[in-house]
Automatic annotation (TrEMBL):
Residues 1-16 form the signal peptide. This is Beta-Ala-His dipeptidase-like. SUPFAM superfamilies: Zn-dependent exopeptidases. Residues 223-379 form the Peptidase M20 dimerisation domain. The keyword Protease applies. It comes from the Eukaryota. InterPro entries: ArgE/DapE_CS (IPR001261), Cyt/Met_Dipeptidase (IPR051458), Peptidase_M20 (IPR002933), Peptidase_M20_dimer (IPR011650). The lineage of its organism: Eukaryota, Metazoa, Chordata, Craniata, Vertebrata. GO terms for biological process: proteolysis. GO terms for molecular function: dipeptidase activity; metal ion binding. GO terms for cellular component: cytosol. Belongs to the peptidase M20A family. Keywords: Hydrolase, Metal-binding, Protease, Signal. PROSITE patterns: ARGE_DAPE_CPG2_2.
């Protein structure tokens, strides 16, 4: 009797919900080859949303996902977003958005998973070592465009739901899948706003499955930076000029532009625009401990990317600089000669491009004014007769959640169960506009729980997902749904 009691106690401590984890995990292990085949089928569809000629393939991908969700017993609405006007004036149909429901029990919490099924362009001529649209397994990795971003992550969720359904799906699940994420999610924000009082009305938690860890240690993302993109234009003549005839005779546009760009930040990366740091929240001791516990090997990162030296000396300083403080990066100069060889031309007009990554409390309108006022002041001080213009091109707000919300606690418990490690709590340095849109439009709890590896190369050559992470990630989503039913 004592042995039986101890066994039951052990099971209660290691199992969330009414079904023991080992049964769910065993099912996932036994079906992993089937899961890989599904990913192979999905990778084979060249759902490149950047190319209008391949729009039908994006739609085909959405239809394949619809079929998979229906096999799970889900009800699916394929929402028509209408037409998209191309730069040449032609119009083509936007791919449908999937809004799906799996189980509907008013006594259970409801979680909505978001993902996307479109991909970035990929050709083997780009430098791939395998055909990008043929899933290739080697050295424990599954290579193919979309393997990590985001088809593999979406499938891991669906596979987890299937495994749980063999016993019991402990929560209500909704799914939102789109096919235009790689081209700014055209039409999605309007759809979320329109369906806020219907599809999202009974949603308690929203989980974005389109993120990566920053190391081999599993991570949960609870914040992202925003972004402000600017163009600085300087013009000195009506046409390009020969430097032998005009060099030294006029104020060259390129010289003015380089001067302006050089005044934006100092050699330590500190932004020189007045007031830019005023809105940054002070670092708390609680937050500081999160950075101290995060796994991030500076030497490994430097070796991988060929970086000689970081500006920041410690791991904690680097992590904070890449996520909780604003940064400014210069991206290019349009109109300047950049081809191989030499060309002694004075460009008539050049356009510099730079962006500022924003953190919470930084308002787009305020940053826009700060940048414009500062550059106008510096150009006036230069006393150049050239024409000058600053243009705010586009921007996205930052996003920050409370990492102690119930679904975060459930995710941390799930990671501990599956991987035997405490989760890294991550603030991403990049920008994920959909997180901000969900938060502002629905008011729900938002969490980014992805299973992308730190070296998966999304958008790059040889994109992949580790087979181990793909399968263990499936277990993670299953464990998360179980844990979510108990918080």
């Amino acid at each position: 009797m004592t042995v039986l009691v101890l066994a039951l106690l052990f099971m209660s401590l290691t199992t969330a919900g009414s079904v023991p984890s080992d049964q769910i995990f065993q099912y996932i292990e036994e079906h992993q080859n089937e899961y890989v085949q599904r990913l192979k089928d999905w990778i084979a569809i060249e759902s490149d949303s950047n190319d209008p000629e391949k729009r039908h393939l994006v739609t085909n991908m959405m239809l394949l996902a619809e079929e998979r969700i229906r096999t799970l017993g889900g009800t699916v609405e394929m929402v028509d977003l209408g037409m998209q006007e191309l730069p040449n004036g032609n119009k083509i149909s936007l791919p449908p958005v999937i809004l799906a429901n799996i189980v509907k029990d008013p006594k259970k919490p409801t979680v909505c998973f978001y993902g996307h099924l479109d991909v970035q362009p990929a050709e083997i001529e780009d430098g791939w070592s395998t055909e990008p649209y043929i899933l290739t397994e080697k050295n424990g990795n599954l290579y193919g465009r979309g393997a990590s971003d985001d088809k593999g992550q979406v499938l891991a969720v669906l596979n987890a739901i299937e495994a749980l359904q063999k016993h019991e799906l402990p929560v209500n699940v909704k799914i939102l899948l789109e096919g235009m994420e790689e081209v700014e999610s055209t039409g999605l924000k309007e759809l979320v706003e329109e369906r806020n009082s219907t599809f999202f009305s009974d949603v308690d938690h929203i989980v974005v499955t389109d993120t990566a860890w920053i190391s081999s240690k599993p991570g949960i993302t609870y914040g992202t930076r925003g972004n402000c993109y600017f163009l600085v234009e300087v013009e000195c003549a009506k046409q390009d000029l020969h430097s032998g005839s005009f060099g030294g005779l006029l104020h060259e546009a390129m010289n003015d532009l380089i001067f302006l760009l050089s005044t934006l930040a100092d050699s330590s990366g500190h932004i020189l625009i007045p007031g830019i740091y005023e809105a940054v929240a002070p670092l708390t001791e609680k937050e500081k401990k999160l950075y101290e516990g995060t796994e991030y090997d500076l030497d490994v990162i430097k070796a991988k990317y060929g970086i000689k030296q970081f500006i920041n000396k410690t791991k904690e300083e680097l992590l904070m600089q890449r996520s909780r403080y604003p940064s400014l990066s210069i991206h290019g100069i349009q109109g300047a000669f950049s081809a191989p060889g030499t060309k002694t031309v004075i460009p008539a007009k050049v356009i510099g491009k730079f962006s500022i990554r924003l953190v919470p409390n930084m308002e787009l309108s305020v940053v826009k004014k700060q940048v414009t006022d500062y550059l106008n002041k510096r150009f006036t001080e230069r006393n150049s007769p050239n024409s000058f213009k600053v243009t705010y091109r586009k921007g996205s707000k930052s996003w920050l959640a409370d990492p102690n919300e119930p679904q975060y606690l459930a995710a941390r418990k799930a990671i501990k169960r599956v991987f035997g490690k405490e989760a890294d709590m991550i603030r991403s340095g990049g920008t994920i506009p959909i997180a901000t849109d969900f938060q502002e439009l629905t008011g729900k709890s938002i969490m980014l729980l992805g299973i992308g590896g730190p070296d998966d190369a999304p958008h790059g050559q040889d994109e992949k997902i580790s087979r181990y992470i793909y399968i263990e990630g499936t277990k993670l989503y299953a464990a998360f749904l179980q844990e979510l039913s108990t918080v």
